[in-house]
Design a protein that fits this description.
By secondary structure, this protein is α+β, with helices and mostly antiparallel strands. It has a single domain (39-189), classed as Sandwich (lipopolysaccharide transport protein A fold). It is 16% helix and 53% strand. It is built from 2 helices and 13 strands. Strands 1, 2, 3, 4, 5, 6, 7, 8, 9, 10, 11, 12 and 13 form a 13-stranded antiparallel beta sheet that branches. The protein is globular and about 60 Å long.
Length: 194
Amino acid sequence: MKRSRLPHLVSFIALVLVFASFNGCKMHESGVTVDSLLADEGPTSESWNPVMYINENGLPRLVLTAEYMAQYETVDSTYMVLSALTETTGRVRVDIFDANGDSSATVFSNRITYFDKERRFVADGDVIVNAKDNRHIFAEHLAWSEQTERIRTPGFSTIQTPKQTLSGYGLDADENLIDFSMENVTGTVISDEQ
């Protein structure tokens, strides 16, 4: 007499389904997805003592130097935060070059955030800008856009040139600090007339 394999097959399938349902739930609970990685607030990569070069048409546009860099990626942007390792060590330095590849300005700051897609950076903490012809900006917060070639400080800042020292709010200046405007200005201007 032949035995039917059907009861054994049904038992085996039931056992597999029970096992798969327990393991399936566990896999979904602890699985890593692209969305879970993007939702993570930590950096996607880190680097120590980085030097970042940005070129345009074969000429230098920016050189960023720092002790530490963390790169973050979100659904709609990629940005890098450059800083010193501690509050008492070095500062972040950005060398800006004009369209001809000549040095335009140098920025020193405690921290700089560079937004890759927008091609701009935001400097925070004891910001100093040194431009050609002995021109300087001193501020706590500053934004620079590569596309507009403009420097902006939404808060208080001081701009110093060979003939004037002006302090105020809302500075909007070109990279060379020649064409600029401010609000609520106070300062000193040296006249050419004697």
